[in-house]
Amino acid sequence: MNVSRRALLATPALSGLPIRAWAQTGAGNWPARPVRVVVPFTPAGTTDVAARILAERLQARLNQPFTVENRAGAGGNVGADYVAKAEPDGYTVLMQAISSGAINYTLYGDRMPYRPEDLAEVGLVVRVPNVIFVTNALPVRSLRELVAYAKANRGRLNIGSSGAGTSLHVTGELLKMEAGIEMTHVPFRGAGPMLAEVIAGRVQVGVDNLPSAIGHLRDGRLRALAVTTATRTPALPDCPTTAEEGLPGVEATAWFGIQAPARTPRPIIERLGAAIDAVVKEPETRARMADVGGMMPDLTPDGGTTPAAFTAFVRAETARWGEVVRRSGATVE
Predict the structure, then answer these.
(1) What residue stretch is flagged as signal peptide (predicted)?
(2) Smallest Cα–Cα separation from 227: which of 204, 257, 256, 248?
């Protein structure tokens, strides 16, 4: 079928992009080879779990391998910076997290190696509750009991997170601030090492995204005290919310989505964004995410996501969490 130049330029995905530039970028053939999905945290954490579910479904839809590559460090900044500086050709994308995508801009300040404008939003993939839990050796069975125990044992408890600057770190700071308690923050290089230390009892309290902790909670290796969402999660229905436990100010929902280098051709952003939107609406994807406590994007009326909607979402989250960091006094030290 012959397509006129006028018809091509009238297509929304190509509007504003000269035909020669469109051909030179190779965007019209994307993806023509494997795509790397960089996860800025260690394997087995929620970012990694969600990225692997997404990569599997994108591979099926776009007929090219989507391979997950873990580049951990600095609360997600190492991996995010790597993608921000990568070739903007659509073959290196980022599974962004709330930490390196919103919180760290205020937390790290002038030490941030990249800025929001260095990355382009493609699509929100999933939102998840955070969960507060303790080692089984600690004699508390509710968040209220933890607060009372911490007040009676001031400065003797440690609280672990998957890294400085993560929503888990800031949730812990919110907990301390709202409850008026002292605990020493212990950052790890991912959820896996942190969970192992709390299970072993060397760290008494932990905060994690529900998907990476839920297996340990269901099996009784850890004791869940509260989820940080406004309502209980069906994945852990017996676990109360922080509001139910008397701390409504401790509310935090983590999120994960795809970003690309800022100069990635817009047609690639739109095509990948459309594929992500289709994936998150699949019943299979929704069921797999829900089983581990994940909530779908719901940025559009039909429950999906778009690059534009994700951009507005990230801007709002950056402003919101910037204020939380300032109020809590959280630092990366």
Answers:
(1) 1-23
(2) 248
